[in-house]
Amino acid sequence: MSWQAYTDNLVATGKLDKAALYSRAGDSLWAQSSGFQLQANEISEIARGFDDPSNLQAHGLHVQSQKYFLLRADDRSIYGKHEGEGIIAVRSKQAILIAHYPAGIQAGEATTIVEKLADYLISVGY
Question: Is residue 46 a contact partner of residue 61, using CB atoms and an 8 Å limit?
């Protein structure tokens, strides 16, 4: 399966409207859904946030120039919310999955989908 298929499958669930897959360091884009391009500083901020969330805690999570209130940041997952929509970033052994859910979608439903894909990637060495 191509990397693009993973982002396409996330969006196909109907619970997420945008997704991207980056290298673990955040320096290489592997796949993205249409119109979901993060700026270099945004993905760098997220990649560093898994190991040291202090900058995200102080300044919020930024994706596509939108500031999200940081809900969670640890060595595996980063969650952010802005009004009714949110961002889920999950790190695996070699990748970072980033997905956006629109207003009207339950955060828990969207989070479960992204976390399960990360678990799968980890189980196959990624």
Answer: yes
Q: What is the pTM of this model?
A: 0.95
Strand 61-63 vs strand 29-32: parallel, antiparallel, or unpaired?
Answer: unpaired
Which alpha helices (DSSP H) does 51-96 contain, by range? 54-59
- CATH code at position 55: 3.30.450.30
CA-to-CA dists, residue 74 to 1, 9, 37, 116, angstroms: 29, 25, 23, 17
22-46 pLDDT per residue, tens: 999 999 999 999 989 999 999 999 9
Q: Identify the pLDDT of residue 113.
A: 97
Range of the domain at 63: 3-123
